[in-house]
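A reminder from the course coordinator: this example appears on the midterm review sheet, so study it carefully.

Given structure:
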């Protein structure tokens, strides 16, 4: 059994900040509620995290939930963290970045924080984390989706209207020899 390499980066996503920044997620939040917007963000991030081999943590404030902090494992690369009541996603993310400074993983992993919160950006960068804007994350998620779709497309069919045009050159040559008696 081979040991899997560790994820190349830890990505901390300020969940409600991203929901409020992405137009599609705002529409879902406003029409169908916060729970549906969270679910949709989770689906988008699951594919993105796996494709990029990022240990992705979606962090949500407890203020919108009536339960204690918890962590839900979604996939090998994605987990959801709900903060304790009274703790914000910002403080959870900032503490994670501060702790990472003293972690041996910092020598072979990056830590990235996705948020549009300017104060949080300055704080986490001060701890040595990388910062990614909500717009940059949206662009990277969209790129990943289109790249995966492109890879999954079946090979293009021949544009000719004859069956002969869809055959490989060797098969076409054999048919020509049969047709002309060679």
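Designed residues:
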């Amino acid at each position: 059994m081979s040991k899997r390499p560790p994820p190349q980066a830890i990505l901390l996503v300020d969940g409600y900040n991203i929901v409020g920044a992405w137009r599609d997620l705002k529409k879902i939040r406003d029409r169908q509620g916060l729970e549906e917007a969270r679910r949709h963000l989770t689906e988008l991030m699951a594919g993105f995290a796996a494709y990029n081999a990022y240990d992705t943590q979606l962090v949500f404030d407890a203020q919108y939930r009536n339960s204690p902090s918890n962590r839900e494992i979604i996939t090998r690369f994605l987990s959801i963290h709900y903060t304790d009541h009274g703790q914000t996603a910002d403080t959870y993310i900032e503490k994670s970045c501060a702790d990472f400074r003293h972690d041996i993983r910092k020598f072979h992993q990056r830590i990235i924080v996705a948020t549009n919160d300017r104060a949080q950006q300055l704080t986490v960068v001060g701890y040595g984390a990388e910062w990614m804007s909500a717009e940059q994350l949206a662009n990277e998620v969209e790129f990943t989706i289109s790249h995966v779709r492109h890879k999954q497309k079946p090979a293009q069919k021949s544009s000719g209207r004859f069956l002969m045009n869809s055959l490989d050159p060797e098969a076409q040559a054999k048919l020509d020899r049969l047709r002309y008696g060679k």
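The domain at 9-155 is CATH 3.40.50 (Rossmann fold). The CA atoms of residues 169 and 175 lie 10 Å apart.
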